[in-house]
Amino acid sequence: MSKKTLAILTILIAIILDQIIKIYVKTNFILGEEVVVFDWFRIHFTENNGMAMGFEFGGKNGKLFLTLFRLVAVVGIIYWLITTIKQKVHNAVIIGIALIFSGAVGNIIDSVFYGVIFDDSTHKVATLFADKPYGELFYGRVVDMFYFPIWQGTLPSWFPFIGGEPYTFFQYIFNPADSYITIGVVLLFFFSKQAFPKEEKKKNQPTDFLENEKLGTR
Question: What is the DSSP letter of 146?
Answer without folding.
Answer: E
